[in-house]
Amino acid sequence: DGGITQSPKYLFRKEGQNVTLSCEQNLNHDAMYWYRQDPGQGLRLIYYSQIVNDFQKGDIAEGYSVSREKKESFPLTVTSAQKNPTAFYLCASSMGTGGMNTEAFFGQGTRLTVV
Amino acid sequence: ILNVEQSPQSLHVQEGDSTNFTCSFPSSNFYALHWYRWETAKSPEALFVMTLNGDEKKKGRISATLNTKEGYSYLYIKGSQPEDSATYLCAPTSGGSYIPTFGRGTSLIVHP
After folding, report:
1. Which residue among A98, A107, A111, B109 sits deepest, i.e. has the most Cβ atoms within 10 Å of its Cβ?
2. Contact between B62 and B75 (Cβ < 8 Å)
3. CA distances from residue A78 to A14, A28, A39, B20, B28 in whole angstroms, order as listed
4. A7–chain B Cβ distance below 8 A for any pair
């Protein structure tokens, strides 16, 4: 079955540690996205990538880093510089950007708790 | 940051009631708008994609309309059922942005 896989579903980390969230898709989509959701807030864009080896900052990129070395994979690293990393993280992909190509397909999400 | 507003933020209705929500977005340089349904413990799933002013889409008891000139879309649910309980998100691409921007969503709870 085609889809997006995020792992792990729940993640606990100590304050000050970097942590990497995995996102893999087998939909052959060019574009991939990372969103963050906090209670009472919508989905806020962290980073996006329109093509392999290229990515752009979203609205709240500070304290995060990404890579896009393969079309299928778009891992997100939450660094110690992120002031408030505890949140629900959603990865998504779409065929492309602009117009109808932007229908997003989502993973199941990773809930990160920093203690 | 693209300004996407959804209202109301939450809605409680009785089974059988009809309801509607609003998504407002910048009307300039409009490309497309997607509506998603996000059920608890699941991933958001696309309901509709709308691209043309005056578009109307329908899927069962759910329908949507689009006004790109004034920058809004309505989602209607006729005869709400408990299984319609979910958060409904809109994501336009407009205002010069090729990347979909999500609104905060409307949380719908349908009481039996």
Report:
1. A107
2. yes
3. 12, 26, 19, 38, 35
4. no
Closest CA to B38 of A96, A87, A92, A34: A92
Q: How many CB atoms sit inside 10 A of residue A31's CB?
A: 22
Asked if B8 and B21 touch (Cβ cutoff 8 Å), the reply is yes
Query: Chain B within 8 Å of A39 (Cβ-Cβ)?
Result: no
The three-state secondary structure class of A72 is: coil
- Kindly report the backbone phi and psi dihedral angles of residue A74, in degrees, each rounded to the nearest multiple of 5, phi listed first: -145, 75
Partners of residue A40 in chain B, C-beta under 8 Å:
104
Q: Which residues in chain A touch residue B99, judged by CB atoms under 8 angstroms apart? A: 33, 45, 48, 58, 97, 102
